[in-house]
Amino acid sequence: MDAPDDLKHLAAARWRIAIGLTSTMIVLYFGFILLVAFNKPVLATPIRPGLSLGILLGALEIVAAWILIWFYVRWANRHYDAKVAKLRGRS
Amino acid sequence: MISSLGEPNLIAIVGFFVFIALSLGITILAARRTRSAEHFYAAGRKITGFQNGLALAGDYMSAASFLGIAGLVALSGFDGLIYSIGFLVGWPIVMFLIAEPLRNLGRYTFSDVVAFRLRQAPVRVAAAIGSLAVVAFYLIAQMVGAGNLITLLFGLPYELAVVIVGVVMMAYVLFGGMLATTWVQIVKAVLLLLGAFLLAGLALSRFGFNPLTLFEAAADQYGAGVLGPGGLVSDPVDAVSLGLALMLGTAGLPHILMRFYTVPDAPTARTSVSYATAFIGVFYLLTFILGFGAMVIVGQDTIRGVDAGGNMAALLLAEAVGGPGFMGFISAVAFATILAVVAGLTLAGAAALSHDLWVNVFRGGHASDHEQLRVARVSAAVLGVLAILLGIAFEGQNVAYMVGLAFAIAASANFPALVLSIFWRGFTTRAAQLSMLTGTLVSLLLIYLSPAIQVDILGNAEAIFPLRNPGIVSIPLAFLVAVVVALWRPEPEAAAGFAELERRALLGTDEH
Fold first, then answer.
1. Domain limits of chain B?
2. Which residues in chain B have Cβ-Cβ distances shorter than 8 Å to A12?
3. What is the CATH number of domain B10-401?
4. Nearest to A30 among B236, B243, B267 (CB)
5. Structural element, H or E, at residue B464
6. Which residues contact B264 (CB under 8 A, 6 or more apart)?
7. pLDDT band at B512; cut points 50, 70, 90
């Protein structure tokens, strides 16, 4: 009898995760883009021969995208799918 | 270095024909199974997550990425990497906000989702206009790339090269539909990843397999400036505008969104995005090496001498490290890349014309399966001819830049309405319609008023709109229009349908 409420909880949980992860990606990426736009010398700083801060951060953006997606998939596979299956079974 | 580019290359020609024969074989097999609209648009929804991940990667790693970005990095160093990174960070957005609700709410196109609880006709017409604008710009970029590539490799006339690509692509789409297009994408994605790995490996073997040694050699030869931001993004606002368009555009590309309907359910849609992001990320990391490799091993002057835009850098690198035979192989891969992407785009355009406009607007949602299939095929043929004509008309345009514009239109026209329709109870028909039309028309208008058209093409002294990418104006404006219109004129029927939308978005339906 609590089905609509459970659905609301599940929707809210998914919403929170989605917004949280999306905001993280946006902050990381626009941090990078704003450095490209307004502080080019910082990105040109050499860390060691052949590696500038810009190239390192750029590669890390791609790695960050992988990590965020991995985190989401782990959450969805462990928690979300089971709850969806439960709600589907009831309706 | 003397290049054999421009002379007929036997391995490239054989490679072309092997790929065409292989892909037409796939098409014949697929054609036997393509009997209903569901097969034509969605490959019977039987594609697995791994397969769809490869197909998504295939659709996404276009000639602009492979040839264009390698060229940009080779000629301007770090600045080219901004494209590589921007193209990738759109995928998490697709994953978190779009993929699963899209799969659960729609059948063939993303307009199914926007129109789910809104009035069909106004939403579908606006969505089709937005989709077709994106598809047209993307098609121009691919056709121009294909024409240049074949002309450079075989010395064939540009127009003939464009016609060949158009005709082969139409064969895939018309007869094999989504199933053939998907398998062509999978074959192409595997070839492209393999080619990029081999090429990067051969280039790196000269630097002890250490990318940093390669980057250091680039800095020694062309100055430390190539490892940091430079002139390509000199205007800060333009840099942010490009970044915004690249990040949000992916989630509005009709041919990418359509792929989520080829899998059986939402969890499979999720799996396919994680595979796609893994493949695409690896590929874009490899473009760092391909670009700097071409810069050091081939040299900027040689690259510019062959093509001012640098589009042939990857092929020149292949010749330098692996000889003409290897260049032939990489050329055949690049050709396969273009052909597959053009097929995916045409299919998405055909779905907008037939499923959205014909079936759901003119026929009010009632058309037999046979009729849907016939209209879809006619639409694909019309778009194929249009692609050929556009490719010829826009000869000489910069490929990567054109794709950047397609992303800006997608991010302005499709992305705001799609996201708001899934997540905002108060969204309305008028708001969706006006947001999509504003996004499409404003981004097109600003592109027309930008320096790329006004200064570079029309030869005016200055442009009315100063930015090369319209995203920073057109994307927020499309969101603003949507929110203002929806708050100004609420639509109780649309709000009432939100509970059902939310249920379906999470739970899906029982029919598969």
1. 10-401
2. none
3. 1.20.1730.10
4. B243
5. none
6. B45, B46, B512
7. very low
